[in-house]
Amino acid sequence: MRYFIEFAYKGTHYHGSQIQPNGVTVQSVLQDAFFTILRTPVALTFAGRTDAGVHAKQMFAHFDLPDSDSDPTASAVSQLSGLTSRLNRLLPEDIAVYRIFPVADDLHARFSAVSRTYEYRIATRKSPFTHGARTYMPVPLDYDAMNLAAQRLLGTHDFAAFCKLHTDVKTTICTITQAQWKTESDGAVFTVTADRFLRNMVRAIVGTLFEVGRHKLSPDDFEAVIASRSRQAAGQSAPAEGLFLTRVVYPDGATKGC
Asked: What residues have CB less than 8 Å from 230, skipping those under 6 apart?
């Protein structure tokens, strides 16, 4: 049987979401917690990959367990009741499990997702309460220019200019449906939604938009960066600490659970 887990994490102290040979990751901590409780290995497939220091307000993963009806020894399935609260008692404070629920056997946490939304948060005033969760940006930025540039992202384009080099992907074409900056009393938030994202894509976009906000690039220059398909033409990646995965959307009804 296939199950989905909905969870969140603060990525400050992790070497990214996916298991790596060296370094503690969100996946390794979660899988260790599952094994401690269920006494059977659980392999989690995440909805996407986040870099070291990046956070997730909403993340999904799927895992498979034997059907207890077909395998009488599959005691792990019988222990799913109350598993969410048991995991939360065992997990560190920076990882929280919201729910675990059965789904269709062909629902894939990564490939079945139809869109993902990220937010990049900056603070214009230093605060001990936002450290690690916002990027401190004391330099004034032209958000009107940044929004004009961000509109050039909308639609289906080749976003190779904002993709980490030497990434093994079949295509760098994505469709972006939302890209907008909104100012707040103590900072600003950039929200971007797409059908898929490339490695380091949002941070590269934000870093290049910072160049627009500082008037080092114009909105037309930003569009030329997209057309260049060259990572060297784009700006430096923005720091990881301000980036949050905030929403993952699946086909209607797929993640309602029970």
From this structure: 160, 161
Classify 118 as helix, strand or coil.
strand
CA 114 from centre of chain: 14
**pLDDT for res 157:** 97
Contact yes or no for 94/9 (Cβ under 8 A): yes
252 flagged as catalytic:
no
Q: Cα separations (Å) of 44 from 27, 59, 245?
A: 7, 12, 18
Q: What are the two backbone dihedrals, phi and then psi, of residue 161, each rounded to the nearest 5 degrees?
A: -65, -20
Residue 86: count of CB within 10 angstroms of its CB: 18
Contact predicate 162/231, CB 8 Å: yes
Please give the Cα distance from 179 to 85 (Å, whole number): 36
Handedness of CA 177, 4, 168, 162 (dihedral sign): positive
pLDDT of the residue at 166? 73
Q: Is the pTM of this model over 0.90?
A: yes
Among 32, 51, 220, 252, which one carries the catalytic annotation?
51
Domains of the chain in start order, with CATH, are: 2-111 (3.30.70.580), 115-247 (3.30.70.660)
Residue 172 near residue 161, CB atoms below 8 Å: no
As given in the structure block, the two tokens for residue 64 are 């498979």
Indicate the SS3 state at residue 243. strand
Please give the pLDDT value at position 77. Answer: 56
Q: Tell me which residues of the chain have a pLDDT lower than 50.
A: 72-73, 258
Running DSSP on this structure, what letter comes out for residue 239?
A: P
